[in-house]
Fold:
Amino acid sequence: MAKINDNYLKLKAGYLFPEIGRRVREFAAANPDAKVIRLGIGDVTRPLAPAVLKAFHAAVDDLATTDQFAGYGPEQGYDWLINAIIEKSYKPLGVELKTEEMFISDGSKCDCANILDIFALDNVVAIGDPVYPVYNDTNVMIGRTGEANDKGYYENIVYMPCNEANNFIPALPTQKVDIIYLCFPNNPTGTVASKAELKKWVDYANANDAVIFFDAAYEAFITNPDIPHSIYEIEGAKKCAIEFRSFSKTAGFTGVRCGLVVVPEEVMGTMASGEKYSFNKLWLRRTTTKFNGASYPVQRAAAAVYSDEGWKQTKEIIDYYMENARIIREGLTEAGVTIFGGVDAPYIWLKTPGGMSSWDFFDKLLNECNVVGTPGSGFGPSGEGYFRLSAFGHRENVIEAVERIKKNLK
Ligand code: MLT
Structure:
């Protein structure tokens, strides 16, 4: 009989968001009249920007013609999209990238998981706690870890607690690690890291021959001009960092699917022989073998984000969500709740009132306010006692949810 990948059995529970979905469906079935407001998973609600939609339609029409028809594209993405991103999104930051250093994909979640393919299993990995669960679970699935302990920490992963005491920015590991996951603006805490803070990580990585996986999926939500949008704004980062970006939240592509990875040519690892080898070459090899590229219409739609019109319209959508974030932040602060994030990120991280557990607060909000959020403990043990609200809802729902919570907590 074929053997299963036993590593999957080490995973403690179902993936967080389906589990929340299950509980909400159960509640809705039992309470059909309840008007449930979902501010749990960070899923966008605004329609695509008109310029993006127009390009999307036009690209679908291309497929109806013999002249413009597009079959297989380059596995790593079309140059016209890559170059538009480099010009409009990286150059203004003072970051120069080569076309060959960027890879377009069907989303950042897959990229964060797939990147593990090109790293040896005996690398020591450090991840934050709380953290986007994909970083943790994919390391378990691929077989890098042992079992989880009672706390939920897996053997062979170095966890870096993020809490109020360290402003939700982890301390440098005290032991040598080879791979470090950093996510700023952070999911789930909504907090950000300054250039000086990121410089410490880049220096650590370069001094220890480590690689940083920098998840910048939420960079477009930064409002403070001093906060870096890319790890490559930090001197030395091109030698040690791989950056992930996503169109999901930035341009409303959660259902459309498009992301990108930057693997600078200078990022090196060692072969078993001890010689150096470029991760860029490995990622290209992996991409061309295991992927056939994001679809042509999706890439055309993504490229339209970088047109003058598309850029302006996309920014307006981001501002809409950040206004939601402000409404949540200010409303809950008024209700006496301690909150973090929500200024440079679309997530508000709050301390559960009265020291309730994260899941108890989830149940309370669902049952008493009919509002869905995400329990902090679902992002790791250090998330216990916290709760995440997403700013991606419809404005009227966000206002109503805040009013319901305020009333409930009075
Ligand atoms: C979240 O809510 O944390 C995100 O939507 C998850 C994701 O981007 O996959």
Q: What stands out?
A: The chain has two domains: 6-47+309-409, 52-307. Residues 41-43, 109, 132, 187, 248 surround D-malate (CB under 6 Å). The mean pLDDT is 97.
